[in-house]
């Protein structure tokens, strides 16, 4: 994709799209949950398989824009030692 196509798809700085491939759905769901736990994300929209290729694929969108105080939700989790 060109930089303009990416900008058009994402809408604004701070949004990202992660495309994942794993051998099984449980692994994809675990990885997607990790992204969702760290950033604002609606989670996996759908899973798909490509005929002739091993594994399952998923795409997840996330908003990694810092909070107004400059902290990311994921950064705050690093300090939680309970």
Sequence-ordered SSE layout with sheet pairings:
Elements lengths: L2 H8 L4 E8 L2 H14 L1 E9 L7 E8 L9 H6 L4
Structural description of this entry:
- The protein has 82 residues and is α+β, with helices and mostly antiparallel strands.
- The longest helix is centred in the middle third of the chain and has 14 residues, at 25-38.
- 34% of the residues lie in helices and 30% in strands.
- It has helices at 3-10, 25-38, 73-78; strands at 15-22, 40-48, 56-63.
- The protein contains 3 helices and 3 strands, in the order αβαββα.
- The protein is flat.
What is the makeup of the main sheet? 3 strands, antiparallel
Please bin the fraction of helical residues.
Answer: 25-40%
- As residue ranges, the low-confidence spans are 74-82
Give the number of DSSP strands.
3
**In what order do the strands lie side by side in the largest sheet?**
1-3-2
Mean pLDDT: 77
Report the total helices. 3
The radius of gyration is: 15 Å
Instruction: Please report the distance between the alpha carbons of the first and last residues.
Output: 43 Å
Approximately what portion of the residues adopt beta-strand conformation?
25-35%
- What global shape is seen? flat
Task: Summarize the helix and strand pattern as letters.
Answer: HEHEEH
Content-based structural category = alpha+beta
In short:
The protein has 82 residues and is of the alpha+beta class.
